[in-house]
Specification:
single chain; Alpha-Beta Plaits; elongated
């Protein structure tokens, strides 16, 4: 199926009104990108900040909608450069996987994407098709968690993967010898990816799915893996405490370097042996619940 794309520069004040109009004219997706090299990191809950100058990209399923939208924008924004393009027919959500190659984490752990043979047959090899869910190991936040699992003995233990995404952390824990991993995610697509990847790695029997509104049922676990974001991690500290048995580990990721001190101070209220590891401006925070 052919798709059509329309791009134009807009200001922050123009963005929301134009988004509504373009959607009404037939766009199936609209995105905004920075057009002035000013970064926006993690917003506070409820915030939806925009850059001062943006590039608006609208996607259309038919040329008629594209032409109608282009005509409207040309008449109302005559001095703005508007670019219309017909896109090559691709399976867009999977195209990026052409650049996804086997990766090693720590001393003995590998993530092997579909279509590749293990590099080291004696290593712990996780076979992965992430689908549309987050978690391949290519991002520093996931890599930091995989490295922690490679260097700590989880044999026979029960863990929680909070925000499981593709299931990569839960599955690696099981491949490293964990007895069971409880997986939690708000995205149904992530849960499906976790189930499929667990089956691919012959560890499906070790996965238990718990809905986000039922996490109070999780108790007495050996550890929690939570690769999400700093703001929700702060909010979740009181909920994580009863999930762990005394001495249980917590491994947190998705934290920017400048956020790590505040997060460590938050968790120091309830946890001990706090340790921080950095990779590419991201931080992993690990700690233990007091015995």
């Amino acid at each position: 199926m052919a798709f059509y794309e329309l791009t134009l520069p807009v200001t922050a004040t123009q963005a929301k009104p134009l988004e509504a109009i373009i959607a009404d004219l037939g766009a199936v997706a609209i995105t905004f990108q920075d057009d002035s090299n000013v970064p926006i990191y993690e917003p506070l809950p409820g915030e939806t900040p925009l850059w001062d100058f943006l590039k608006l990209t609208a996607l259309f399923e038919d040329q008629q909608s594209l032409n109608r939208t282009q005509a409207f924008l040309t008449s109302h924004l005559p001095k703005v450069e508007i670019i219309a393009t017909q896109l090559k027919d691709e399976v867009w959500e999977r195209l990026w996987m052409d650049h996804f190659k086997p990766m090693q984490f720590g001393d003995n752990s590998w993530v092997i994407p579909d279509g590749y043979a293990p590099v080291d047959a004696k290593a712990v090899n996780l076979l992965l098709d992430p689908g549309l869910a987050f978690g391949t190991g290519t991002h520093a936040t996931t890599a930091l968690c995989l490295e922690w699992l490679d260097r700590h003995d989880v044999t026979g233990q029960q863990w929680v993967d909070f925000g499981c995404g593709s299931g990569i952390l839960a599955i690696m824990a099981l491949l490293q010898g964990a007895k069971k991993v409880i997986c939690v995610d708000i995205d149904a697509q992530a849960i499906e990816a976790t189930r499929q990847n667990a089956k691919k790695n012959n560890v499906a029997s070790g996965i238990e799915i718990v809905a986000p509104d039922a996490i109070e049922s999780i108790r007495n676990q050996d550890g929690i893996l939570a690769n999400i974001l700093s703001a929700p991690l702060k909010q979740l500290r009181p909920k994580f405490i009863p999930m762990l048995k005394p001495g249980g580990h917590i491994v947190l990721s998705g934290i920017l370097s400048e956020q790590s001190e505040a997060l460590c101070n938050e968790y120091a209220q309830s946890f001990i042996d706090i340790d921080c590891q950095n990779l590419d401006d991201w931080v992993r925070v690990s700690a233990r619940k007091p015995s």
